[in-house]
Each structure stands twice: as structure tokens, then as C-alpha cells.
Amino acid sequence: MQQTRIDALQRMPIFGGIRADVLEFLLDASGMVTVEKDQYFFHEEDRAESMFVLEEGAVSVLKLWGGQQYVLRRLQRGDCFGEMALMDLFPRSASILAIEPCTAIELSTASFYKIYEKDLEQFALIQMNIGREVSRRLRVADQHLFRARMGAPYVEPVTPFPST
Q1: How far apart are CA 134 and CA 148, in angstroms?
Q2: What is the pTM of this model?
Q3: pLDDT per residue over 69-86, tens digit each?
């Protein structure tokens, strides 16, 4: 099972180019989380100390506005969320709701700092990969904002790296 998880992580943009031994080290320092349908992984403004890699299921990314939750996007098996916590250490910027039963790998900021101590080069590569993923998501958000300001209809975002 561990090798299957390592293979899946290496296919993800955030962990592309990361050696198997480093991912094994990271997985050994991480936990598994099961979240039932209609339950939350976390809520907007919660303290952020980890990111998640979705192994099974699907989630909605929700933003609170005027007392109501709005869906920003949906994520599925192979996607990750909460990665901003590893970069900026701010509270959660959105809520994550399981829309199907989910299983996810929870990767804590503490486990990433263990990689920093073990292999600085691999740590830096992960940080660069996270930065690229956040940048891709920002580009999509910018495009949606621009289209909304221009009165254009909503267009579903296209992911450059399909989930496996």
C-alpha cells in the first residue's frame, strides 16, 4: 500500500520530481483521515497546520459570504487541498466539505519541516511545486474574476494535470 501511495504522490504536481525515499519518510510522519459524506475536513478561519491529499472521494471547496456557503470548486481523488497552510501559516481561507465518503493523507507542517532537516533540496522542490500549484489556482481565480467583471458566463476551470 505504501508504494501505491508513493506512486500516486509522484504523479501529482506538488510531488513531481520528489524521490521515493523522501515521500516514504513524509508518509511515515503523516496520518490518514476518513471523513463521511456531508462532514467537513475543516472550516474557513480554522487554524491551518496541514494539507490533505484526497485518496478516495470528492469534496467541495466552500466560501462563506453573507451567512451562506458558496461552492468555489470541486476536487476529487488525486487532488490536494490546504496546501496554502504550508506556505503562509494563515487560517484556512475556505471550508472543505466531503460530498462523498473520503479518505485522505494528512500531511502536517511539522512533517514537512522534518524533510527540511533531512533533505533541503527536496524540501525546496516541494515548496516550489506548491508555489506553482497555488499560482495555477490563482490564474484560474483571476480569470473567473475578470469574466465576472465583464459580465461573461461562468466557465468550469480546466485542470492542466488530470487526476488519476
Answers
A1: 21
A2: 0.81
A3: 999 889 999 888 998 877
